[in-house]
Amino acid sequence: MRRVIFPAAAVLAVSLLHVPPASADPPRKTPVAEGYGGAVATVDLEASKAAIAVLRKGGNAVDAAVAAGAVLGVTEPYSAGLAGGGFMVYYDARKRKVFTIDGRETAPKAMGPTTFEGIPFDEGVTSGLSAGVPGTVANWDLALRRFGTLSLRQALQPAVEVASRGFVVDQTFHDQTAANADRFKDFTSTAELYLPNGAPPPVGSVFRNPELAATYRELGRRGPEWLYGGQLGKEVVATVKRPPVTPGSTRNVRPGLMELSDLRDYRALLREPTKVSYKNLDVYGMAPPSSGGSTVGEALNILEALPEVGLHEYLEASRLAYADRGQYVGDIPGVPLDELLSDGFAKERACLIGERAMPHPAAPGDPDGSYGPCAEPGGTATPVAKEGPETTHLVVADRWGNVIAYNLTIESTGGNGIVVPGRGVLLNNELTDFTFGPAPGDPNLPGPGKRPRSSMAPTLVFEKGRPVLAVGSPGGSTIITTVLQILLNRYEWGMDLPEALAAPRATQRNTAQTQAEPAFLQKYQAELEAQGHSFAGNPEIGAATALEFLSRDRVQAVAEPTRRGGGSALVVSSRR
Protein backbone atom coordinates (compact mmCIF):
# COMPACT_ATOMS: atom_id res chain seq x y z
CA MET A 1 0.00 0.00 0.00
CA ARG A 2 1.30 3.46 -0.85
CA ARG A 3 -0.12 5.12 2.20
CA VAL A 4 -2.71 4.78 4.91
CA ILE A 5 -4.64 7.71 6.34
CA PHE A 6 -6.35 7.13 9.68
CA PRO A 7 -9.01 9.57 10.86
CA ALA A 8 -8.10 10.89 14.28
CA ALA A 9 -10.99 9.04 15.92
CA ALA A 10 -9.82 5.70 14.59
CA VAL A 11 -6.24 5.83 15.81
CA LEU A 12 -6.84 4.04 19.11
CA ALA A 13 -8.07 1.00 17.21
CA VAL A 14 -4.60 0.38 15.78
CA SER A 15 -2.65 0.02 19.01
CA LEU A 16 -0.48 -2.70 17.52
CA LEU A 17 1.12 0.01 15.36
CA HIS A 18 1.93 2.10 18.45
CA VAL A 19 0.52 5.16 16.74
CA PRO A 20 0.35 8.10 19.16
CA PRO A 21 -3.19 9.31 19.78
CA ALA A 22 -4.13 11.93 17.23
CA SER A 23 -6.36 14.89 17.74
CA ALA A 24 -7.37 18.02 15.93
CA ASP A 25 -4.16 19.51 17.24
CA PRO A 26 -0.75 18.00 16.39
CA PRO A 27 1.68 17.17 19.23
CA ARG A 28 3.04 20.27 20.94
CA LYS A 29 6.43 21.54 19.87
CA THR A 30 8.62 23.60 22.20
CA PRO A 31 10.91 26.10 20.43
CA VAL A 32 13.44 26.59 23.26
CA ALA A 33 15.07 24.06 25.57
CA GLU A 34 18.07 24.29 27.93
CA GLY A 35 19.97 21.51 29.57
CA TYR A 36 22.83 19.04 29.60
CA GLY A 37 24.12 15.94 27.87
CA GLY A 38 23.29 17.07 24.36
CA ALA A 39 20.66 19.09 22.49
CA VAL A 40 18.85 19.23 19.16
CA ALA A 41 16.68 21.65 17.22
CA THR A 42 14.74 20.74 14.08
CA VAL A 43 11.51 21.90 12.47
CA ASP A 44 9.77 18.70 13.55
CA LEU A 45 9.04 17.03 16.90
CA GLU A 46 9.43 13.47 15.59
CA ALA A 47 12.87 14.28 14.16
CA SER A 48 13.99 15.99 17.36
CA LYS A 49 12.77 13.05 19.47
CA ALA A 50 14.69 10.62 17.26
CA ALA A 51 17.90 12.61 17.67
CA ILE A 52 17.51 12.85 21.44
CA ALA A 53 16.84 9.11 21.69
CA VAL A 54 20.08 8.42 19.83
CA LEU A 55 22.01 10.76 22.14
CA ARG A 56 20.51 9.15 25.24
CA LYS A 57 21.57 5.71 24.02
CA GLY A 58 25.19 6.86 23.66
CA GLY A 59 25.24 7.95 20.04
CA ASN A 60 27.10 11.10 19.05
CA ALA A 61 26.04 14.26 17.21
CA VAL A 62 26.58 12.77 13.74
CA ASP A 63 24.56 9.65 14.58
CA ALA A 64 21.73 11.84 15.86
CA ALA A 65 21.84 14.19 12.87
CA VAL A 66 21.55 11.33 10.39
CA ALA A 67 18.69 9.78 12.37
CA ALA A 68 16.87 13.12 12.50
CA GLY A 69 17.52 13.77 8.81
CA ALA A 70 16.04 10.40 7.86
CA VAL A 71 12.94 11.08 9.99
CA LEU A 72 12.53 14.46 8.27
CA GLY A 73 12.36 12.49 5.01
CA VAL A 74 9.17 10.99 6.45
CA THR A 75 7.55 13.93 8.22
CA GLU A 76 8.93 16.76 6.06
CA PRO A 77 9.02 14.90 2.70
CA TYR A 78 8.45 18.06 0.67
CA SER A 79 11.68 19.55 2.03
CA ALA A 80 14.03 16.59 2.52
CA GLY A 81 14.51 12.95 1.63
CA LEU A 82 16.95 10.25 0.62
CA ALA A 83 16.67 11.32 -3.03
CA GLY A 84 17.96 14.81 -2.21
CA GLY A 85 21.24 16.30 -1.03
CA GLY A 86 22.79 18.54 1.57
CA PHE A 87 25.77 19.91 3.48
CA MET A 88 27.14 19.14 6.94
CA VAL A 89 29.45 21.38 8.98
CA TYR A 90 30.79 19.32 11.88
CA TYR A 91 33.08 20.04 14.81
CA ASP A 92 34.97 17.01 16.11
CA ALA A 93 35.74 17.79 19.76
CA ARG A 94 38.39 15.08 20.09
CA LYS A 95 40.31 16.29 17.04
CA ARG A 96 39.41 19.93 17.75
CA LYS A 97 38.78 20.46 14.06
CA VAL A 98 35.90 21.52 11.79
CA PHE A 99 35.03 19.21 8.90
CA THR A 100 32.46 19.70 6.14
CA ILE A 101 30.75 17.11 3.96
CA ASP A 102 29.42 18.02 0.53
CA GLY A 103 26.45 15.81 -0.33
CA ARG A 104 25.16 18.13 -3.04
CA GLU A 105 23.44 16.53 -6.03
CA THR A 106 25.27 16.39 -9.37
CA ALA A 107 24.17 16.86 -12.96
CA PRO A 108 24.15 13.81 -15.22
CA LYS A 109 27.05 13.45 -17.61
CA ALA A 110 24.69 14.18 -20.50
CA MET A 111 23.81 17.66 -19.22
CA GLY A 112 25.41 20.68 -20.87
CA PRO A 113 25.37 24.48 -20.40
CA THR A 114 22.42 24.94 -22.79
CA THR A 115 20.21 22.09 -21.51
CA PHE A 116 17.74 24.42 -19.75
CA GLU A 117 17.78 27.23 -22.32
CA GLY A 118 14.33 28.14 -23.55
CA ILE A 119 12.54 26.00 -20.96
CA PRO A 120 10.12 27.87 -18.66
CA PHE A 121 11.30 27.61 -15.07
CA ASP A 122 8.11 25.99 -13.75
CA GLU A 123 8.21 23.44 -16.56
CA GLY A 124 11.81 22.67 -15.69
CA VAL A 125 10.95 22.09 -12.03
CA THR A 126 8.20 19.51 -12.63
CA SER A 127 10.16 17.20 -14.88
CA GLY A 128 12.66 14.38 -14.93
CA LEU A 129 15.14 16.89 -16.33
CA SER A 130 15.44 18.71 -13.00
CA ALA A 131 16.39 15.64 -10.95
CA GLY A 132 20.01 15.66 -9.84
CA VAL A 133 21.97 12.56 -8.87
CA PRO A 134 21.04 12.17 -5.17
CA GLY A 135 23.73 12.88 -2.57
CA THR A 136 21.96 12.42 0.77
CA VAL A 137 22.57 8.68 1.20
CA ALA A 138 26.26 9.07 0.33
CA ASN A 139 26.41 12.01 2.75
CA TRP A 140 24.90 9.90 5.56
CA ASP A 141 27.21 7.00 4.79
CA LEU A 142 30.39 9.08 4.73
CA ALA A 143 29.45 10.96 7.90
CA LEU A 144 28.70 7.78 9.83
CA ARG A 145 31.83 5.97 8.63
CA ARG A 146 34.16 8.88 9.36
CA PHE A 147 32.61 10.42 12.46
CA GLY A 148 29.68 8.36 13.73
CA THR A 149 29.30 5.29 15.92
CA LEU A 150 26.14 3.78 14.40
CA SER A 151 25.72 1.80 11.20
CA LEU A 152 23.47 3.21 8.49
CA ARG A 153 20.94 0.51 9.34
CA GLN A 154 20.84 1.60 13.00
CA ALA A 155 20.61 5.30 12.12
CA LEU A 156 17.65 4.66 9.80
CA GLN A 157 15.64 2.66 12.33
CA PRO A 158 13.81 5.65 13.91
CA ALA A 159 12.66 6.73 10.44
CA VAL A 160 11.46 3.19 9.68
CA GLU A 161 9.37 3.30 12.84
CA VAL A 162 7.87 6.73 12.15
CA ALA A 163 7.04 5.84 8.53
CA SER A 164 5.42 2.60 9.69
CA ARG A 165 3.32 3.87 12.61
CA GLY A 166 2.60 7.25 11.09
CA PHE A 167 2.64 10.84 12.24
CA VAL A 168 -0.07 13.40 12.94
CA VAL A 169 -0.74 15.70 10.01
CA ASP A 170 -0.29 19.34 11.00
CA GLN A 171 -1.41 22.47 9.20
CA THR A 172 1.94 22.95 7.46
CA PHE A 173 1.96 19.46 5.95
CA HIS A 174 -1.67 19.84 4.84
CA ASP A 175 -1.08 23.27 3.32
CA GLN A 176 2.08 22.21 1.49
CA THR A 177 0.23 19.22 0.04
CA ALA A 178 -2.66 21.42 -1.04
CA ALA A 179 -0.29 23.91 -2.68
CA ASN A 180 1.20 21.05 -4.73
CA ALA A 181 -2.05 19.21 -5.48
CA ASP A 182 -2.31 20.41 -9.10
CA ARG A 183 1.01 18.85 -10.04
CA PHE A 184 0.88 15.88 -7.62
CA LYS A 185 -2.31 14.68 -9.35
CA ASP A 186 -0.43 14.51 -12.66
CA PHE A 187 1.74 11.61 -11.46
CA THR A 188 0.10 8.32 -10.55
CA SER A 189 2.55 7.40 -7.80
CA THR A 190 2.46 10.85 -6.19
CA ALA A 191 -1.32 11.17 -6.27
CA GLU A 192 -1.75 7.73 -4.73
CA LEU A 193 0.56 8.58 -1.85
CA TYR A 194 -0.16 12.23 -1.06
CA LEU A 195 -3.70 12.77 -2.38
CA PRO A 196 -5.74 9.95 -0.83
CA ASN A 197 -9.30 10.07 -2.14
CA GLY A 198 -8.13 12.87 -4.40
CA ALA A 199 -7.44 15.38 -1.61
CA PRO A 200 -4.67 16.32 0.84
CA PRO A 201 -4.65 14.43 4.17
CA PRO A 202 -6.75 16.34 6.73
CA VAL A 203 -5.17 18.02 9.71
CA GLY A 204 -5.26 15.71 12.73
CA SER A 205 -5.26 12.49 10.69
CA VAL A 206 -2.36 10.05 10.89
CA PHE A 207 -0.29 9.68 7.76
CA ARG A 208 1.68 6.52 7.11
CA ASN A 209 4.17 5.75 4.35
CA PRO A 210 4.79 1.98 4.54
CA GLU A 211 6.60 1.97 1.19
CA LEU A 212 9.14 4.49 2.50
CA ALA A 213 9.52 2.38 5.65
CA ALA A 214 10.33 -0.63 3.47
CA THR A 215 12.74 1.46 1.37
CA TYR A 216 14.64 2.65 4.46
CA ARG A 217 14.67 -0.88 5.86
CA GLU A 218 16.10 -2.32 2.64
CA LEU A 219 18.62 0.53 2.33
CA GLY A 220 19.86 -0.23 5.83
CA ARG A 221 20.20 -3.91 4.97
CA ARG A 222 21.81 -3.55 1.55
CA GLY A 223 23.80 -0.35 2.08
CA PRO A 224 24.33 2.70 -0.16
CA GLU A 225 25.24 0.55 -3.16
CA TRP A 226 21.56 -0.35 -3.46
CA LEU A 227 21.03 3.25 -4.62
CA TYR A 228 24.39 3.91 -6.25
CA GLY A 229 24.20 1.25 -8.96
CA GLY A 230 21.77 -1.29 -7.51
CA GLN A 231 18.06 -1.97 -7.88
CA LEU A 232 16.89 1.22 -6.14
CA GLY A 233 19.15 3.22 -8.45
CA LYS A 234 17.64 1.48 -11.47
CA GLU A 235 14.16 2.44 -10.29
CA VAL A 236 15.20 6.05 -9.72
CA VAL A 237 16.67 6.26 -13.22
CA ALA A 238 13.59 4.66 -14.76
CA THR A 239 11.37 7.22 -12.99
CA VAL A 240 13.55 10.12 -14.12
CA LYS A 241 13.60 8.96 -17.74
CA ARG A 242 9.95 7.87 -17.87
CA PRO A 243 7.94 9.85 -15.31
CA PRO A 244 4.68 8.08 -14.32
CA VAL A 245 2.35 10.68 -15.82
CA THR A 246 -1.34 10.25 -15.03
CA PRO A 247 -3.30 9.22 -18.15
CA GLY A 248 -5.10 12.22 -19.57
CA SER A 249 -2.76 14.78 -18.00
CA THR A 250 -1.97 17.73 -20.24
CA ARG A 251 1.21 18.66 -18.37
CA ASN A 252 4.36 18.72 -20.52
CA VAL A 253 6.68 16.53 -18.41
CA ARG A 254 10.16 16.39 -19.88
CA PRO A 255 12.18 13.21 -19.36
CA GLY A 256 15.51 13.41 -17.56
CA LEU A 257 19.08 12.58 -18.56
CA MET A 258 20.20 10.51 -15.57
CA GLU A 259 21.83 7.13 -16.19
CA LEU A 260 22.79 4.37 -13.77
CA SER A 261 26.45 5.21 -14.41
CA ASP A 262 25.81 8.69 -12.98
CA LEU A 263 24.71 7.09 -9.73
CA ARG A 264 27.69 4.70 -9.71
CA ASP A 265 30.06 7.64 -10.12
CA TYR A 266 28.58 9.79 -7.34
CA ARG A 267 30.73 10.62 -4.30
CA ALA A 268 30.09 12.72 -1.21
CA LEU A 269 33.16 14.86 -0.56
CA LEU A 270 35.05 16.15 2.44
CA ARG A 271 35.90 19.81 1.85
CA GLU A 272 37.79 22.46 3.76
CA PRO A 273 35.40 24.85 5.51
CA THR A 274 35.33 28.58 4.95
CA LYS A 275 36.52 30.65 7.90
CA VAL A 276 36.38 34.33 8.78
CA SER A 277 37.10 36.20 11.98
CA TYR A 278 34.38 38.56 13.17
CA LYS A 279 35.19 40.56 16.27
CA ASN A 280 36.56 37.96 18.67
CA LEU A 281 34.75 35.08 16.94
CA ASP A 282 35.70 32.55 14.27
CA VAL A 283 32.87 31.73 11.88
CA TYR A 284 33.02 28.50 9.86
CA GLY A 285 30.80 27.70 6.90
CA MET A 286 30.42 25.65 3.74
CA ALA A 287 32.68 26.21 0.74
CA PRO A 288 31.60 25.99 -2.93
CA PRO A 289 29.47 24.62 -4.46
CA SER A 290 27.64 26.25 -1.55
CA SER A 291 27.75 30.02 -1.60
CA GLY A 292 26.69 30.12 2.04
CA GLY A 293 30.10 30.23 3.68
CA SER A 294 31.62 32.69 1.22
CA THR A 295 28.68 35.12 1.14
CA VAL A 296 27.96 35.14 4.89
CA GLY A 297 31.70 35.46 5.52
CA GLU A 298 32.22 38.29 3.05
CA ALA A 299 29.26 40.23 4.43
CA LEU A 300 30.59 39.86 7.99
CA ASN A 301 34.00 41.11 6.85
CA ILE A 302 32.42 44.12 5.13
CA LEU A 303 30.42 44.97 8.25
CA GLU A 304 33.45 44.68 10.49
CA ALA A 305 35.20 47.24 8.29
CA LEU A 306 32.47 49.82 8.96
CA PRO A 307 32.47 52.24 11.91
CA GLU A 308 28.94 51.25 12.93
CA VAL A 309 26.48 48.53 11.96
CA GLY A 310 22.74 49.02 11.72
CA LEU A 311 20.02 47.63 9.47
CA HIS A 312 21.02 49.93 6.60
CA GLU A 313 24.58 48.60 6.72
CA TYR A 314 23.32 45.02 6.97
CA LEU A 315 21.27 45.44 3.79
CA GLU A 316 24.08 47.14 1.87
CA ALA A 317 26.71 44.58 2.89
CA SER A 318 24.34 41.83 1.78
CA ARG A 319 23.82 43.60 -1.56
CA LEU A 320 27.56 43.74 -2.22
CA ALA A 321 28.25 40.17 -1.11
CA TYR A 322 25.49 38.88 -3.39
CA ALA A 323 26.95 40.80 -6.32
CA ASP A 324 30.25 39.00 -5.78
CA ARG A 325 28.50 35.65 -5.24
CA GLY A 326 26.82 35.88 -8.64
CA GLN A 327 30.03 36.77 -10.42
CA TYR A 328 32.52 34.36 -8.86
CA VAL A 329 30.96 31.46 -6.95
CA GLY A 330 29.98 28.11 -8.42
CA ASP A 331 31.21 24.57 -8.87
CA ILE A 332 34.11 25.66 -11.06
CA PRO A 333 37.91 25.63 -10.74
CA GLY A 334 39.51 28.79 -9.50
CA VAL A 335 36.83 30.36 -7.30
CA PRO A 336 38.84 33.20 -5.64
CA LEU A 337 37.67 32.14 -2.19
CA ASP A 338 40.67 33.42 -0.22
CA GLU A 339 40.37 36.88 -1.78
CA LEU A 340 36.58 37.03 -1.44
CA LEU A 341 37.10 36.42 2.28
CA SER A 342 40.11 38.70 2.68
CA ASP A 343 40.10 41.82 4.84
CA GLY A 344 41.56 43.88 2.00
CA PHE A 345 38.72 43.05 -0.35
CA ALA A 346 36.17 43.65 2.41
CA LYS A 347 37.54 47.12 3.10
CA GLU A 348 37.48 47.96 -0.60
CA ARG A 349 33.84 46.92 -0.78
CA ALA A 350 32.86 48.54 2.54
CA CYS A 351 33.94 51.96 1.36
CA LEU A 352 31.07 51.90 -1.16
CA ILE A 353 28.51 51.94 1.66
CA GLY A 354 27.31 55.44 2.43
CA GLU A 355 24.34 57.07 4.10
CA ARG A 356 21.93 56.06 1.33
CA ALA A 357 21.17 52.80 -0.46
CA MET A 358 23.42 52.36 -3.48
CA PRO A 359 21.96 52.20 -7.00
CA HIS A 360 20.57 48.86 -8.15
CA PRO A 361 22.12 46.57 -9.07
CA ALA A 362 25.48 46.76 -7.33
CA ALA A 363 28.31 45.61 -9.56
CA PRO A 364 30.73 42.92 -8.40
CA GLY A 365 34.14 43.88 -7.09
CA ASP A 366 37.53 42.65 -8.25
CA PRO A 367 39.04 40.22 -5.71
CA ASP A 368 42.47 40.36 -7.35
CA GLY A 369 44.64 40.77 -4.24
CA SER A 370 45.47 44.41 -5.02
CA TYR A 371 43.17 46.71 -3.07
CA GLY A 372 42.98 50.47 -3.02
CA PRO A 373 41.21 52.78 -0.63
CA CYS A 374 37.92 52.72 -2.55
CA ALA A 375 37.97 51.02 -5.94
CA GLU A 376 34.99 51.62 -8.18
CA PRO A 377 33.52 48.26 -9.30
CA GLY A 378 33.52 47.65 -13.01
CA GLY A 379 31.81 44.30 -13.53
CA THR A 380 28.24 43.49 -14.53
CA ALA A 381 25.74 42.35 -11.94
CA THR A 382 24.26 38.85 -12.23
CA PRO A 383 20.53 38.46 -11.45
CA VAL A 384 19.64 36.21 -8.52
CA ALA A 385 18.44 32.88 -9.92
CA LYS A 386 15.26 31.33 -8.63
CA GLU A 387 15.72 28.87 -5.78
CA GLY A 388 13.08 26.88 -3.94
CA PRO A 389 12.02 28.38 -0.62
CA GLU A 390 12.09 25.05 1.20
CA THR A 391 14.90 22.84 2.51
CA THR A 392 15.33 22.05 6.18
CA HIS A 393 18.05 22.58 8.76
CA LEU A 394 18.93 20.94 12.05
CA VAL A 395 21.56 21.32 14.76
CA VAL A 396 22.85 18.76 17.27
CA ALA A 397 25.37 18.84 20.11
CA ASP A 398 26.35 15.81 22.17
CA ARG A 399 27.79 15.18 25.63
CA TRP A 400 31.37 15.15 24.31
CA GLY A 401 31.14 18.63 22.75
CA ASN A 402 30.73 17.53 19.12
CA VAL A 403 28.46 19.88 17.17
CA ILE A 404 26.85 19.65 13.74
CA ALA A 405 24.85 22.04 11.58
CA TYR A 406 23.13 20.17 8.74
CA ASN A 407 21.12 21.47 5.77
CA LEU A 408 19.29 18.89 3.65
CA THR A 409 16.91 19.45 0.78
CA ILE A 410 15.04 18.26 -2.28
CA GLU A 411 14.91 21.91 -3.50
CA SER A 412 11.39 23.22 -4.21
CA THR A 413 8.51 22.34 -1.90
CA GLY A 414 7.74 18.82 -3.07
CA GLY A 415 10.89 18.53 -5.21
CA ASN A 416 10.04 17.76 -8.83
CA GLY A 417 6.68 16.33 -7.73
CA ILE A 418 7.47 12.76 -8.79
CA VAL A 419 7.39 9.83 -6.34
CA VAL A 420 9.44 6.78 -7.30
CA PRO A 421 6.71 4.12 -7.76
CA GLY A 422 6.61 1.64 -4.91
CA ARG A 423 9.31 3.42 -2.90
CA GLY A 424 7.49 6.33 -1.23
CA VAL A 425 10.30 8.76 -2.13
CA LEU A 426 9.99 12.15 -3.86
CA LEU A 427 12.71 13.07 -6.35
CA ASN A 428 14.57 16.37 -6.13
CA ASN A 429 14.52 19.23 -8.63
CA GLU A 430 17.96 20.46 -7.60
CA LEU A 431 19.22 21.04 -11.13
CA THR A 432 16.93 24.06 -11.46
CA ASP A 433 19.40 25.77 -9.12
CA PHE A 434 21.65 26.10 -12.18
CA THR A 435 21.41 29.26 -14.26
CA PHE A 436 19.05 28.57 -17.16
CA GLY A 437 20.99 30.83 -19.56
CA PRO A 438 22.00 31.95 -21.99
CA ALA A 439 24.63 33.47 -19.69
CA PRO A 440 28.16 33.25 -21.09
CA GLY A 441 30.76 33.09 -18.33
CA ASP A 442 28.24 32.46 -15.55
CA PRO A 443 29.94 30.19 -12.97
CA ASN A 444 26.63 28.43 -12.31
CA LEU A 445 25.75 27.16 -15.78
CA PRO A 446 24.99 23.42 -15.85
CA GLY A 447 27.60 20.94 -16.96
CA PRO A 448 28.33 17.21 -16.83
CA GLY A 449 28.87 16.05 -13.25
CA LYS A 450 28.64 19.62 -11.98
CA ARG A 451 27.01 20.52 -8.65
CA PRO A 452 24.56 23.44 -8.78
CA ARG A 453 25.41 26.45 -6.65
CA SER A 454 23.58 26.40 -3.34
CA SER A 455 22.68 29.05 -0.77
CA MET A 456 22.61 26.59 2.12
CA ALA A 457 24.70 28.00 4.95
CA PRO A 458 25.13 25.65 7.92
CA THR A 459 27.35 27.69 10.24
CA LEU A 460 29.43 27.12 13.38
CA VAL A 461 30.75 29.97 15.54
CA PHE A 462 33.76 29.65 17.87
CA GLU A 463 35.20 31.79 20.63
CA LYS A 464 38.74 31.13 21.86
CA GLY A 465 38.82 27.81 20.03
CA ARG A 466 35.56 26.46 21.48
CA PRO A 467 32.20 26.19 19.73
CA VAL A 468 29.64 28.67 21.05
CA LEU A 469 26.88 28.61 18.44
CA ALA A 470 25.50 26.59 15.51
CA VAL A 471 22.88 27.97 13.14
CA GLY A 472 21.28 27.52 9.74
CA SER A 473 17.98 27.84 7.89
CA PRO A 474 15.96 26.86 4.83
CA GLY A 475 14.72 29.50 2.42
CA GLY A 476 16.49 29.25 -0.95
CA SER A 477 18.61 32.32 -1.67
CA THR A 478 17.27 33.97 1.51
CA ILE A 479 19.17 31.42 3.65
CA ILE A 480 22.32 33.52 3.55
CA THR A 481 20.68 36.70 4.81
CA THR A 482 18.70 34.77 7.44
CA VAL A 483 21.89 33.32 8.92
CA LEU A 484 23.67 36.67 8.63
CA GLN A 485 20.83 38.55 10.33
CA ILE A 486 20.65 36.01 13.18
CA LEU A 487 24.40 36.41 13.77
CA LEU A 488 24.06 40.19 13.81
CA ASN A 489 21.03 40.01 16.10
CA ARG A 490 23.03 37.91 18.52
CA TYR A 491 26.50 39.45 18.39
CA GLU A 492 26.00 43.00 17.12
CA TRP A 493 22.63 44.04 18.51
CA GLY A 494 22.61 42.21 21.84
CA MET A 495 19.69 39.82 21.46
CA ASP A 496 19.73 36.43 23.13
CA LEU A 497 19.42 33.47 20.77
CA PRO A 498 15.62 32.98 21.02
CA GLU A 499 15.14 36.69 20.32
CA ALA A 500 17.64 36.53 17.45
CA LEU A 501 15.62 33.80 15.73
CA ALA A 502 12.22 35.30 16.41
CA ALA A 503 13.08 38.85 15.28
CA PRO A 504 11.46 40.01 12.00
CA ARG A 505 13.60 39.54 8.90
CA ALA A 506 14.52 41.32 5.71
CA THR A 507 16.58 40.00 2.81
CA GLN A 508 18.55 42.07 0.30
CA ARG A 509 20.11 39.93 -2.46
CA ASN A 510 21.26 42.65 -4.89
CA THR A 511 17.68 43.12 -6.02
CA ALA A 512 15.76 46.31 -6.73
CA GLN A 513 13.56 45.77 -3.68
CA THR A 514 14.38 44.35 -0.30
CA GLN A 515 11.93 41.64 0.71
CA ALA A 516 10.78 41.94 4.32
CA GLU A 517 8.33 40.35 6.71
CA PRO A 518 5.29 42.39 7.81
CA ALA A 519 6.63 43.01 11.34
CA PHE A 520 9.91 44.29 9.89
CA LEU A 521 8.08 46.68 7.57
CA GLN A 522 5.89 47.95 10.35
CA LYS A 523 8.88 48.75 12.53
CA TYR A 524 11.61 49.84 10.12
CA GLN A 525 10.20 50.60 6.66
CA ALA A 526 9.80 54.36 7.01
CA GLU A 527 13.28 54.85 8.47
CA LEU A 528 14.98 52.75 5.79
CA GLU A 529 12.97 54.20 2.91
CA ALA A 530 14.26 57.62 3.99
CA GLN A 531 17.73 56.18 3.28
CA GLY A 532 16.75 55.12 -0.23
CA HIS A 533 15.66 51.52 0.30
CA SER A 534 12.63 50.08 -1.48
CA PHE A 535 10.61 47.19 -0.07
CA ALA A 536 8.35 44.31 -1.07
CA GLY A 537 6.45 42.19 1.42
CA ASN A 538 7.32 38.56 2.13
CA PRO A 539 5.08 36.81 4.67
CA GLU A 540 7.80 34.50 5.98
CA ILE A 541 11.58 34.35 5.51
CA GLY A 542 13.43 31.23 6.63
CA ALA A 543 12.77 28.70 9.38
CA ALA A 544 15.99 28.61 11.35
CA THR A 545 17.34 26.25 13.99
CA ALA A 546 20.27 27.02 16.28
CA LEU A 547 21.97 26.12 19.52
CA GLU A 548 24.29 27.96 21.87
CA PHE A 549 26.62 26.81 24.63
CA LEU A 550 25.64 28.82 27.70
CA SER A 551 28.53 27.27 29.64
CA ARG A 552 30.97 24.47 28.97
CA ASP A 553 28.26 21.81 29.35
CA ARG A 554 24.93 23.66 29.37
CA VAL A 555 23.29 24.09 25.96
CA GLN A 556 20.33 26.11 24.74
CA ALA A 557 18.58 24.69 21.68
CA VAL A 558 16.33 27.07 19.71
CA ALA A 559 13.86 26.63 16.87
CA GLU A 560 11.34 28.97 15.29
CA PRO A 561 8.42 29.92 17.55
CA THR A 562 5.97 30.39 14.63
CA ARG A 563 7.58 30.33 11.15
CA ARG A 564 6.65 27.21 9.16
CA GLY A 565 4.50 26.03 12.02
CA GLY A 566 7.23 26.41 14.64
CA GLY A 567 10.09 24.05 15.42
CA SER A 568 11.11 21.61 18.12
CA ALA A 569 14.02 22.04 20.54
CA LEU A 570 14.93 19.28 23.00
CA VAL A 571 17.77 18.48 25.42
CA VAL A 572 18.93 15.16 26.81
CA SER A 573 18.42 16.29 30.39
CA SER A 574 17.28 19.48 32.08
CA ARG A 575 19.57 18.65 35.02
CA ARG A 576 23.23 17.79 35.36
TrEMBL record:
Any one GO molecular-function label of the UniProt entry: transferase activity
Q: Which PANTHER family match?
A: GLUTATHIONE HYDROLASE, GLUTATHIONE HYDROLASE PROENZYME
What is the similarity comment for this entry?
A: Belongs to the gamma-glutamyltransferase family.
Keyword terms of this UniProt record: Hydrolase, Signal, Transferase, Zymogen
Checking SUPFAM superfamilies in the record gives: N-terminal nucleophile aminohydrolases (Ntn hydrolases)
For this protein, the record's Pfam families field holds: G_glu_transpept
Q: Report what the protein is called.
A: Gamma-glutamyltransferase
InterPro entries in UniProt: GGT_bact, GGT_lsub, GGT_ssub_C, Ntn_hydrolases_N
Please list which residues make up the signal peptide: 1-24
